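Researcher: Quick test of sequence recovery. Tokens follow.
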């Protein structure tokens, strides 16, 4: 199959490319490297011994995107490209709406021009907002609490309307919970710029000595140990969910939202303990006030993914920490100092 991958150089995109290429798919990546490095694509080529097409351009540039999609003429599109920092989305809301919402509309128009009717979209559990009940199932009300989440909810709605209006269209909206971990080789992984916003990359940088101590944002939540509980999902499992979703899109029509998680909650303290076991290093922590906007617990109902995609997570929190550590300890500065060979 010919698969057009926006944002393919990023964290989740690069792991998905490995599996797409290993499965024999022909791939074209469209990325402006706003939050990624071409070194990631070199590493994917080395890991798979396969090449891919690359168009370096911005999804906000409708003409460049349309040219790339019509030239490649894909059977399916996987749409990762976007901005994802919750805090930044409150400071720069228009940039987020232009990139995540207008960028998605540009992509759908390009797909129309190329006659491509299948899309897998990177959505987020953040679209649910405050939990009315747990686990979150796909029918939970959609009520995001920040601009980033609203861009994802809007893009979901636009893709749903496009699918209704386009004959034979098939869209799978994958709502990721908390992606972490790295490829088992340790050659590709998450490389956040600046201070990491998310827990596991921060813990990894403490373990490797780049940061002194993890601040735990509150230990007075109503959870097993008082710290926030999340559904961490191994990025390699998440990549496999994309291949399953492409298969699903090939054999169905309409638009379906599907959670991608393990169904298991892990607290901050449990994750820190797992990382200490994986790295053999102590992780210094200090408890500070709750982070504004955080919820106590979030985890997925996983039955729809099993039924529709025939996909289930295979890896546990120890696997996630072990692979994150392999990546972090062998690439202390991420791709920054990475050689291209
Ligand atoms: P990432 O930042 O590593 O990857 C995004 C990629 O898109 C990068 O390669 C970046 O350069 C590219 N990009 C950004 N703006 C672009 C533009 N205007 N034009 C072309 N390319 C552009 O992020 P990721 O963690 O791999 O996330 C991928 C997708 O999954 C995003 O849409 C994100 O919102 C979504 N998501 C991520 C998480 C998470 O915690 N990582 C959770 C839920 C959903
Ligand atoms: C996890 C837990 C924190 C950092 C975010 C986005 C969401 C999605 C995934 C894209 C919480 C605690 C964290 C730290 C801490 N991204 N924590 N110290 O908030 O569940 O989700 O990433 O779609 O949209 O909101 O993930 O990794 O930031 O936090 O104690 O330095 O770790 O309070 O309990 P979150 P996270």
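Model:
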């Amino acid at each position: 199959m010919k698969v057009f991958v926006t944002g393919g150089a990023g964290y989740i995109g690069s792991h998905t490319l490995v599996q797409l290429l290993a499965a024999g798919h022909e791939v074209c990546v469209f990325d402006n490297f706003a939050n990624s490095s071409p070194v990631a694509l070199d590493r994917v080529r080395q890991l798979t011994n396969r090449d891919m097409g690359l168009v370096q351009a911005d999804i906000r540039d409708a003409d460049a995107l349309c040219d790339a999609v019509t030239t490649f003429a894909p059977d399916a599109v996987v749409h990762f490209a976007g901005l994802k920092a919750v805090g930044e989305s409150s400071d720069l809301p228009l940039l987020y709406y232009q990139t995540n919402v207008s960028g998605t509309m540009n992509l759908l128009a390009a797909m129309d021009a190329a006659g491509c009717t299948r899309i897998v979209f990177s959505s987020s559990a953040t679209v649910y907002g405050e939990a009315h009940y747990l686990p979150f199932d796909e029918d939970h009300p959609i009520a995001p609490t920040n601009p980033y989440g609203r861009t994802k909810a809007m893009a979901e709605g636009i893709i749903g309307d496009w699918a209704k209006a386009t004959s034979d269209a098939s869209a799978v909206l994958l709502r990721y919970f908390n992606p972490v971990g790295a490829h088992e080789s340790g050659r590709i992984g998450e490389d956040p710029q600046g201070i990491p916003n998310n827990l596991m990359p921060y813990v990894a940088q403490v373990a490797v000595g780049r940061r002194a101590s993890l601040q735990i944002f509150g230990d007075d939540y109503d959870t097993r140990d008082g710290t926030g509980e999340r559904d961490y999902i191994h990025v390699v499992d998440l990549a496999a969910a994309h291949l399953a979703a492409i298969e699903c899109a090939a054999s169905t029509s309409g638009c379906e939202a599907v959670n991608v998680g393990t169904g298991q909650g892990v607290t901050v303290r449990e994750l820190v303990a797992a990382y200490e076991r994986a790295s053999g290093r102590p992780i210094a922590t200090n408890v500070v006030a709750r982070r504004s906007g955080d919820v106590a617990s979030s985890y997925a109902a996983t039955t729809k993914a099993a039924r529709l995609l025939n996909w289930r997570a295979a890896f546990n929190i120890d696997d996630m920490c072990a692979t994150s550590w392999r990546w972090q300890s062998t690439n202390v500065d991420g791709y920054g100092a990475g050689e291209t060979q």
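The chain is about 40% helix and 15% strand.
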